[in-house]
Design a protein that fits this description.
This protein has helices at residues 2-24, 49-67, 79-98, 114-139. It is mainly α.
Length: 140
């Protein structure tokens, strides 16, 4: 079961990283829908290309964190990396799922925007799923 979880997490993070790199090179598919807006439809986040690259690199590192655990290379890396990373990554995504209590997460107040609808249906459940899978990897 752990192997399946590691593969799923690796694929999810690789896909998300690819989407962010796509946005960094000017791709528009999904970009507007992935950004929270206020009541007037004005974006509350306006990421630049460099920010998309930074997020993409972070997601790539997270993908490698899980995929490398499927290999013998894991024995070469420091123990603390997997000890703490195995807790930090899931909690980042659980916190994202909970949200900021205004624009994102399950407990957001603003629910009438297109982003809010997508966040409730897809983004927050995905983040919660990532968090749960990451915790299962750590605990199994």
């Amino acid at each position: 079961m752990t192997t399946l979880l590691l593969i799923c997490l690796g694929l999810i993070f690789t896909t998300l990283a690819g989407i962010h790199f796509y946005w960094a090179i000017g791709g528009q598919w999904g970009f507007e829908a992935a950004l929270p807006t206020n009541e007037n439809g004005i974006r509350v986040l306006n990421p630049k290309k460099i920010e998309c690259i930074i997020v993409g690199l972070g997601l790539t590192i997270m993908a490698l964190f899980y995929l490398i655990q499927l290999t013998d290379f894991v024995q070469v890396l420091p123990y603390w990396l997997f000890k703490y990373g195995g807790w930090i990554i899931p909690f980042i995504f659980i916190l994202r799922a909970i949200g900021d209590f205004r624009y994102v997460g399950f407990f957001k107040k603003l629910k009438a925007t297109e982003f809010a609808r997508l966040d409730s249906r897809f983004f927050s459940p995905l983040c919660l799923g990532i968090g749960i899978m990451g915790l299962l990897v750590k605990l199994l």
